Amino acid sequence: MTRLRGVLGLLGCLVLALVVAVVAPDPAQDLRRRWTDGEVGAWAASPDRVARVGAVSVVRSADPGYGQPFTTGQALVVTEIDVQVLHRRTQLSRVYLSTRDGQQYDPRSEFVAAGPSLTQPGFTRHSTLVFEVPLRRLDGAELVVDADGASVDGYADAIRVDLGLRDPVRVGPETVTPAESTVTTT
Amino acid sequence: MLTATAAAAALIVAGLTGWYPYANLTPGRPAATLQPGASAEVEGVRYRLDRFVVATSLPAEDPKDPPVVGPAGSALVLVVVNQTVLDRSVRLDEHLCDMTLVDDDGANEWWVDSDYTTLAARPAGYGCADSDEAPLRYGVGQDTGFSFAVPADAVGHLSARLQVSHGPTLALRP
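ok -> C-alpha cells follow
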C-alpha cells in the first residue's frame, strides 16, 4: 500500500511537471514585464536605463535627409527621446509605440539614422523616432522602451511613457527633419 | 519514502535547471591576472598583456588623420594582448575570444566599441581567431587588440576580462 502511494505520488509529480511545461507561456515569446510609467518631460528609471521623452509632435510629413520627404494620409508621431544606459550595453532595439487597443507600431525604417542604437553604460543616447499610426488610434498612445531580454528573475524591465495625445489630436502642417542620433556622456 | 525521493529529485532538477543558464551568464573565475609586460601560459596558450592604454584620444591608423576621440567627457581604452599558441591540440580555427571592460565593483560592463575607435591604430587581429589579415601560427606570437569608449569617471577603476570561447578567462589590469 505504501509502495503504491509512492508510485502514485511520483506519477502525480510527473503529470504536474508536464502540465506546467505545456501550459506555462514561453518566456522567449511572451515576456513578463515590470513596468515603469513616465510622462513627457520627466525621467523614468528602470534598473538598467533611464528614459525621458523630450518632445512629441504629430505631422503628416517628415524628411529623412535623403530623397523625397516621407508623407502619409494618417499621422506621423515624431518622438524625441533620451536614454541613459546603466550597467550594461543595450541595443535599444525594442522601442515602439503602443496604442490603447493594444496595437504596436515600430519606428519607420526610413529614419533609422535618427533612431536609437547600441549604447554603452555611462552614455546617453539622444534619438528621434518616427511612427506612422492611424489618426484614430493616437488617443492615449504610449511609447514603450522595452528590455532587450528578460532579467534573471524572468521579468523584463520596460518603461512606458504616456505621450499626452488626446482626441482630437492636432496634426501639424510642417515637414519635420529628425536629426541624426547622438551620444553624450551621462 | 518514494514520494519524498521524487520531491527531492524534482527540487534538484529544478534547481539545476535554474542554476545552469545563470552560471553561464556569470564570467568564470580568472585563470590568471596580468599587468602590462606580464605573461601566463593557460591551457596551451601563452598570453602576454602588451599594453593597457587609457587616454582621451588614440592615434589614428592613418597618420594623416587626426587622433581618434570619443564623446565629450569620455576616455578611450586600448588593450593589446600578445598570444602564442604552444599546444598543437588547440585548434586555431576554434580559438575564439572576446573582451569586456568592468569597473571595480563589477556594476558596469563595457563591450568593445564599434563607433569611435574603428579608425584607431590597432593590431590587425581583433579577436583571438585565425584570420586572413592576421594568420595565427603555432609557436608564433600575435598581437590582438580591443578598444573601448568609457565615461571619464570610470578611469582608474577599470580592468578587462579576456574570455576565450569554451576556455579560460583572464583578468587584465592597467
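Chain B has one helix and eleven strands.
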